[in-house]
Amino acid sequence: MEADSLKYRRQREAMVRKQIEARGVSDSAVLAAMQKVQRHLFVSEALRDQAYGDYPLPIGDGQTISQPYIVAEMTQALQLNPDDRVLEIGTGSGYQAAVIAEIAFRVYTIERIHSLFVKTRALFDRLKYHNIVTRYSDGTTGWSDQAPFDAIMVTAGAPDIPPILLQQLAVGGRLVMPVGDQHVQELIKLYRDADGIHQTKMGGCRFVKLIGEHGWHE
């Protein structure tokens, strides 16, 4: 792990206390992961002093790193266990995958933008996240040869939940993703048990578009 300055550690402590715990995120594993992952390494050097602010930031190619609270809320909703295998659609900066990787056994993450894929894979290697497996592909089709997954997180908004992702969710599995139009969505959590799929609405949000065969078309 790269050297972590006292300044950034203090900013992370304040982020967890004021932005995340204060809004009701209570899962101890999620809080520990948010405290550990060096968010400032997942943005450009020009934006590092803003990395722990209560807002998303641009990462290039029209993509963003999500607001810290949203990352924590979505991670908590997955109800992760240490032996879980997790699929993430939309690697982006890699920050969300790193947070999940601090809790779960293995993260399979897919990115469709090649420049982000290359940059983020190099960052995972540098930070020694050996339990993150990356793929350059259309994430809306999932990762069938590694299915089923204990949890699936989609970090971009689509008009509907792609049925192919539901097919790759294990019994007992959880899926979290934003669903709505191209401007505003609602976070949806699905839980799959022996009786079928159960849905919970988590509130409004705003994400970039999920582009691909089972999402929005470019």
Give a quick set of tags describing it.
single chain, 218 residues, Rossmann fold, alpha/beta, seven-stranded mixed β-sheet, two-stranded antiparallel sheet
Kindly describe this structure.
The structure is a single chain. This protein is an alpha/beta fold and 218 residues long. It has a domain of 151 residues: Vaccinia Virus protein VP39 (Rossmann fold, 3-Layer(aba) Sandwich), CATH 3.40.50. Helices cover 27% and strands 28% of the residues. It is built from 6 helices and 9 strands, in the order H-H-E-E-H-E-H-E-H-E-E-H-E-E-E. The strands form 2 sheets. The chain has a 7-stranded mixed beta sheet. Strands 1-2 form a two-stranded antiparallel ribbon. Strand 8 and strand 9 form a beta hairpin. The longest helix has 15 residues. The chain is globular and about 50 Å long. The termini are far apart.
- Given the helix and strand composition, which structural class is it? alpha/beta
Question: What's the CATH superfamily of the domain at 55-205, by name?
Answer: Vaccinia Virus protein VP39
- State the end-to-end distance: 37 Å
Strand order of the largest sheet: 5-4-3-6-7-8-9
In the CATH hierarchy, the architecture of the domain at 55-205 is 3-Layer(aba) Sandwich
Report on the biggest sheet. 7 strands, mixed
Molecular shape = globular
Unreliable segments of 5+ consecutive residues: none
Under the CATH scheme, which class of the domain at 55-205? Alpha Beta
**Residue fraction in strands:** 25-35%
Mean pLDDT: 93
**SS element count, helices:** 6
User: Could you name the CATH topology of the domain at 55-205?
Assistant: Rossmann fold
Portion of residues within helices: 25-40%
Number of strands: 9
Cα gyration radius (Å): 16 Å
Give the ordered list of helices and strands: HHEEHEHEHEEHEEE
Quaternary organisation of the protein chains: single chain
